[in-house]
Design a protein that fits this description.
The chain has 161 residues and is mostly helical. The protein has one domain. 75% of the residues lie in helices and 0% in strands. It is globular.
């Protein structure tokens, strides 16, 4: 299970870097459109009572979504954002066991910052504050707190899933 969250993180980082480069070069021709509105339905279905199974199901869904994110066309940043939004919603909607709730919250918050930052940067690639928020979000998912949280979740899922 350890590779699941790590791979998701790496793919999200790669997607964010792709969008950052596209935003800086001004090549985002679809900058006015946002992620699709229907992405939350699968994530909402994954919200269940606090149990190892609920977290295991969410991690399995994250693995599926990370594969989808890896297949996103770099020329279609809206698709990348839609996939990141679904990853983020999956994390936000799981009710994890108490012993890993803080780790899930840390990962979820970091992904929300990344998703929101990417959405804002895509909407207006010239907005300095949007690019700053995106860069801060990138720092968040590569920071020690995030890495420790993913390690904790990986260890938990290895033991319980």
């Amino acid at each position: 299970m350890r590779t699941h969250l790590t791979r998701t993180t790496a793919l999200a980082s790669a997607a964010a870097l792709t969008l950052t480069l596209a935003a800086c070069s001004g090549s985002g021709s679809d900058a006015g459109s946002g992620p699709s509105a229907g992405t939350g339905s699968d994530a909402e279905a994954s919200a269940t009572a606090a149990s190892p199974e609920a977290l295991c199901d969410a991690v399995a869904r994250l693995d599926e979504l990370s594969t989808t994110l890896g297949d996103v066309d770099p020329n279609n940043p809206d698709e990348a954002i839609a996939n990141l939004e679904e990853i983020t919603a999956t994390l936000e909607n799981v009710d994890p066991p108490a012993e890993v709730a803080d780790a899930v919250d840390t990962v979820s918050t970091s992904f929300r910052e990344l998703t929101d930052g990417m959405t804002e940067a895509l909407a207006d690639p010239t907005a300095e504050d949007a690019m700053t928020a995106l860069n801060e979000a990138m720092g968040s998912i590569s920071g020690q707190e995030f890495m420790d949280a993913t390690t904790e979740l990986n260890e938990y899922t290895q033991a319980n899933c």
